[in-house]
Amino acid sequence: MTRASLTVAILAGGAATRLQGRDKGLEPLLGRPLVEWVLEAVATAQAARTLIVANRNHQAYSAFAPVVADDLAGFRGPLAGVAAALAAAATPWLMTVPVDCPRSPADLAARLYTAAQENPADAVVAHDGARRQPLFAIYRRELTSSAAAAAAQGWGVQHWQTTIGARELDFADRRAQFRNLNTPEEFAAYAAEHAR
């Protein structure tokens, strides 16, 4: 995989209802906004460009990376973010990760891309050994119109992935790295475990 092959999109467009509506990606974790941790984790992908898909606080997020908004108004779910990121990507491939996972696997992009090439597929999604992790996925840019149409119909990202024949890739060896943070208690527990 060359740098010119891949765009990375951090999906930060959720309503964060379990954080009392506070923007999850800007929530502090060990003294830094969560989005900084995610950017650090995806830096290993060596992508041509990294985007943040957000529906609010665009100015705050733009301090970290270029920001793209969902094409659909309101909080329409992750598939709307995937569709917006695909439309903004100028590379053949797009990888998505959610903003609530501070330490995704360092080899995520390489493994997803290799799997898509070795057994050709338009989309490959991570599976942690227990369940699909639908927001950790790689897509061909040609899926842009399909994602947009499905998002407009209110589909969930996992249903759309199944419909387009996305392949699952086993990441059971990295299961702990898919841990996500949704509540104040989860932020506090993670911080306590990782404080130096």
Automatic annotation (TrEMBL):
It catalyses: Mo-molybdopterin + GTP + H(+) = Mo-molybdopterin guanine dinucleotide + diphosphate. Signal peptide: none annotated. Pfam families: NTP_transf_3 (PF12804). Residues 9-153 form the MobA-like NTP transferase domain. InterPro entries: MobA-like_NTP_Trfase, Molybde_CF_guanTrfase, Nucleotide-diphossugar_trans. CDD domains: MobA (cd02503). It is found in: Cytoplasm. Mg(2+) binds at D100. One of its GO terms (molecular function) is molybdenum cofactor guanylyltransferase activity. Gene3D superfamilies: Spore Coat Polysaccharide Biosynthesis Protein SpsA, Chain A. Keywords: Cytoplasm, GTP-binding, Magnesium, Metal-binding, Molybdenum cofactor biosynthesis, Nucleotide-binding, Nucleotidyltransferase, Transferase. GTP binds at L11, A12, G13, K24, D70, D100. Its EC number is 2.7.7.77. It comes from the Bacteria. The N-terminal domain determines nucleotide recognition and specific binding, while the C-terminal domain determines the specific binding to the target protein. Monomer. NCBIfam families: molyb_mobA (TIGR02665). Transfers a GMP moiety from GTP to Mo-molybdopterin (Mo-MPT) cofactor (Moco or molybdenum cofactor) to form Mo-molybdopterin guanine dinucleotide (Mo-MGD) cofactor. This is Molybdenum cofactor guanylyltransferase.
